[in-house]
């Protein structure tokens, strides 16, 4: 595992100059060079002659070589200075520099040379990327890089990929994994010479040799610290390292301020120079509000992952339903077609072809929805995992360093809102009783496929047919059925129901309403009102109200009856021969009115004035006609 010994320093202590290696070369020879040595900064091992071997014991964190999350997705090697793209995916700096070299060969050479010239000064850490004035410059052209993992374009700082924010979480975990590895030999962090460390202070996160350990425990401020041998510390698990992010422009200053204008973490010198008119606050103050929102975003992202996974399962079930439905329809079609002779084989082929096309169309829709959900799962999982690592291990500075890309990532993921509820429309139907139109066969061929699904809210009647209603007069209403796109249905077979209700409270009379299927997508609704009243006509299709239902109607009786509702004039007049009836029935023997069983009698009770057999109906004759009225 080759890890750059300069790039992974977290800024705990100053490095010794390379010239010191010559002075103390004799002491280095006393150390076994076949082992992996760790620099006193407690951050990363020195360059080694062989790869890091997996520990024999049980370290608190596994070897970075064994864990996939410590390996670059491009080179498959352990991360070397991992940098985070705006899409929150991490790659080695060397891999990103290779991509940058291949993708941006046409960049302005003057700009590149100027950037290199500004970066020649030595620095203590590679984490100082946000305080670089070149990073905040708005005069330079925008450049973007396509992420090798997700394919999204991300803006690259003007200084190149080296100015991308390091992945602090991965670096910390790799350092902790190295510290906990038994094959890593640590050097004393306090000695000027390369002296092997034998113990570690769990409170200060410092490794000591034997002498420095005694001096550390003699001091009042550290006398009660927990100082363990390296073996005991590794057995317990080293979980703490010194985290200190220094400014790249001003290496002697720590990043301690957050510029809300630029969304950057800066040092005090940068605040005075390049961020003078900007709103700058202390990191600890700003971090509190942002960490709460980021933690909520992480929880929301996790919930979205679970919801999207469930939706994906629903889509899989929907696919099976579509296949099952289409297979069922196909079986019905085949059974129906087999009853015919060769003249309908062409019709059979046409039906199967229609089913195939419908299946392809619907399956294509499911595939597209599944791809969208899978992308949403990947994005939400990336956000959740990245924020988990960042919020669990990152300092305030490190958390705030990713505010801008995280917000942009969340916005690109529809603010982590779950997808709307997925619905499957059972719009494929086989209608075996419908005749095939425009067929070449002389036979009546039945059985058609339809993708039209009736929509009750789009079905309508002509309300003019419900105007000027009279008692006893038949009312005919024509119902037109349509689908959700308001296309008329050209078939019948739907369940259409109709009923009449009184609008007055407490009235529970019923009235017979007839519904006739015309088999062409229209239905006839008819009834005869028997009373003058305010009524409501309710029409439903498949249990749902049609457009405008219930319809208020008013039934009037403009010509009231002036006679008697009787069985016959003989009975109602007590046998009077002069009594007449509007039914025009007459009894023999000189009677002018009707009688039971005689010619002209309607066979039921009726009005003597007009002969209407409906009790609550409109009179068919005017008052000018002379009729005998007999009142008991």
Automatic annotation (TrEMBL):
Repeat region (Filamin), residues: 451-555
Coiled coil: 341-383
Regions of compositional bias (Polar residues) in chain numbering: 43-54
Organism: Dendroctonus ponderosae (Mountain pine beetle)
Protein name: B box-type domain-containing protein
Keywords: Coiled coil, Metal-binding, Repeat, Zinc, Zinc-finger
GO cellular component annotations of the record: nucleoplasm
Spans annotated as Disordered: 35-62
Domain RING-type: 72-150
Family that this chain belongs to: Belongs to the TRIM/RBCC family.
Keyword Phosphoprotein on entry: no
Molecular function GO labels: ubiquitin protein ligase activity; zinc ion binding
B box-type domain location: 242-286
